[in-house]
Structures
1.
Amino acid sequence: MGLREQVNTALKQAMRDKDAARLATLRLINAAIKDQDIARRGADGDTDLTDADILAILGKMTKQRQESVRAYEEGGRLDLAEREQREIEVISEFLPRQLEDDEVAAAIDTAIAQTDASSIRDMGKVMGWLKERHTGQMDFGAVGPMVKQKLG
């Protein structure tokens, strides 16, 4: 079952359970996926989102909420921060398990070997290889400097 079907199944279950908070978050996920469908339809005619595309959407949604949690906590709005945190938990159900630090390091080493990267100029190839295989499993904002350090 693809990610889109998993989200729809969870949405129906949340309706049956009358879980309003979960239902609202699942509807936000569905809306983000449909927005991307519409954007694709106008752009190049290819409307089918892959699971990797949906993972990218979910990752972006998670990152946005993490930034909101930080802002709300700094502003003393703990109630809003908790709501955002609950949304992160629901979204995270559909994301793959995050890799541990040693697994990320091993994936970077593998990517460097597979792409025959030898200098910082090859960083794009390495990052592309990692994104192809590990979307949603690692924070690419943190991985970039690690790759740069190994290539530099």
Note: The two ends are 41 Å apart (CA to CA).
2.
Amino acid sequence: MIRIDTAWLAAAPMDMRAGTDTALARVVAVFGAAQPHTAYIFANKRANRLKILVHDGFGIWLAARRLHQGKFIWVSGDVPTVSLQHAQLDALVLGLPWQRLGPHVVISVV
């Protein structure tokens, strides 16, 4: 498996025809650099397709995911980038509402 320590989501849409070099250039433009063991997630305008670029410390991996129905839950353009936790990344890739996961939704008293 590819180790991912950190995941970042870019709010601005990306052309899904972009290959590895174009996606890497976009990561450098948006995030400043491609850090090792970090995933960078982009969506198209309709938010029904994702591209995830991962720098594994040796090279670059580019993965794509498409939903045939519905769309991925995405952030507004007000915030250019968002850091995701592992559970949020897993939920996002499945098309689930990833914003509902995290420490702020813990139920401690019933």
Note: The helical segments are 20-31, 86-94.
3.
Amino acid sequence: MSNLLEVRNLKKYFPIKGGFFRRVVGQLKAVDDVSFDIPKGHTFGLVGESGCGKSTLGRAILRLHEPTGGEIRLGDTDISKLNARELVAHRRNMQIIFQDPYASLSPRRTVMQTLLEPLETHGIGDAASRKQKVLELLDIVGMRANVLHRYPHEFSGGQRQRIGIARALTLDPKFIVADEAVSALDVSVQSQVLNLIARLQRELGISFLFISHDLAVVQHISHEIGVMYLGKLVEVASSTDLYREPRHPYTKALFSAIPMPDPDASSDRTILQGDVPSPLNPPSGCPFRTRCPEAMETCARSMPALKNIKDNGTPHQVACHLY
């Protein structure tokens, strides 16, 4: 199966300035040497604690944040090397669904104006064909034409997110970053939006990077999952393999923290000690070693590489000295 997106050694560092002359005194390594692939028509789920760099990674792939280093290939194009003018043409192929559907929509624009703007910006079609496209998009996301002249504050959270999804689909993209796309929604609405995204993928063949802190949501929608900690991928596996047999101590701790529906059921929880280290001053070697219940001396000396630990079947990559 061919890959639509290939990310190699992607880095995004934010300079820290201090002193009277505001010189650069350090680097915040939000994304540090991340590599993964997304095949056509597949969803890559990205999970991890808040502040681990998930959203920054998604925005760096789209070049909403300029990468510090690395390579991003979308199809046959290395978009990390495009200049501003060349990038505009490729914006049509990659879009984003933001976490907060209210903040991402202009309160001064109607649904019609919001969905027409991408078509007008890229000079697609005439007035009649653009309006027809908007009506088709609303139908795809399950909304009626009578909402065209309403404003964002007149909708519920789920309806606003459907409008955000329709906007992301306006230019027929090949790749979409869904950044916590359902975390701000009620549970009943979450399932509707997730089913909508899954249906759009089946019908339109779109590839997704689905970012979330909710492991159950990611399992429901993803083909492959990457677990992120302090700017690095520590485990990558198929959804089935990761949920059946997580290998990295951090991944095991995340799974053990999932609430059990039966309060009387016994569970062997892994309680992590200490706080997440600051990305301004990460630990030497493995970034998880200061909280890891299985840390060894070698963990402080070197950062383990992300390597495949399975000889047969689908790859299962882990960055841990235990393997």
Note: The longest strand covers residues 23-39.
